[in-house]
Amino acid sequence: MTQLVRHSGCKQCSVHVEGNRDMAPGMERFLSPGKGNGLRATGGIRPGELLFSAEPLATCVSNKRSRDVCHRCYTRCETLLRCSQCKTARYCNITCQKQAWSDHKRECKCLWSLLPRVPTDSVRLAARLIFALLSPSKGSSEELYTLEEHESHLSSMSEQKKQGLSQLASMLELYLQQEAADLAQEITSALPPSCREPLSLIAKVGTCKHNANRHVNILMCS
């Protein structure tokens, strides 16, 4: 299905509307040549109307803020409870620490294995994505777009940038060594093809940097 739509530049261009997919009411996906994937409303929108809301597929607090932000609710606190095992994750109270455990338990082993080193934000976020994709319940995070559909842009990337990402991919493999034996079979059976290769996954994370605010890296696959 092809429609003509008017963009902000007031030029008409042909776009392909994605179909046959469960979508949030009143929204549709489209693909615009030269611009990429898009998401738009199919009807009128009232000021302040909420069109769609979902929990992010994976999040992580950036290293530069890891000592003053709760790793569960992202509240800034002067005094935080530190995870006794990995020495990295911090929480504003016991409740947040308990609620975070399902997401943190695998990460905790990986962080502990590299002490006193702490992986980069991209590596930790990529690992959390893997753990989230292996989780039996991902909620509505991938309702609009899946991580498999997210672009890595490796084919158009310079060799210099690829080399830099390759170093991060190697760090990701090292980071996951503690969980490697348990993850190997799960990754092959549960992860989409483009997310099984560390380099491709790291590149996908890199294209999501525009979703990061000042102290929390957030990847929302939608």
Automatic annotation (TrEMBL):
Give the EC class as a word.
transferase
Q: Might you give the EC number(s) for this enzyme?
A: 2.1.1.354
Q: Which InterPro entries match?
A: H3K4_H4K5_MeTrfase, SET_dom_sf, Znf_MYND
Annotated MYND-type domain ranges read 70-108
Q: Recall the GO molecular function terms of this protein's record.
A: histone H3K4 trimethyltransferase activity; zinc ion binding
GO cellular component annotations of the record: nucleus
Task: Name a single GO biological process.
Answer: methylation
Q: Does the keyword RNA-binding apply?
A: no
Reactions catalysed, semicolon-separated, are: L-lysyl(4)-[histone H3] + 3 S-adenosyl-L-methionine = N(6),N(6),N(6)-trimethyl-L-lysyl(4)-[histone H3] + 3 S-adenosyl-L-homocysteine + 3 H(+)
For whether the record's keyword set contains Zinc, the answer is yes
Q: Which keywords does the record carry? A: Metal-binding, Methyltransferase, S-adenosyl-L-methionine, Transferase, Zinc, Zinc-finger
Enumerate the PANTHER family for this protein.
HISTONE-LYSINE N-METHYLTRANSFERASE SMYD, HISTONE-LYSINE N-METHYLTRANSFERASE SMYD3
Q: Which protein, by its recorded name, is this?
A: [histone H3]-lysine(4) N-trimethyltransferase
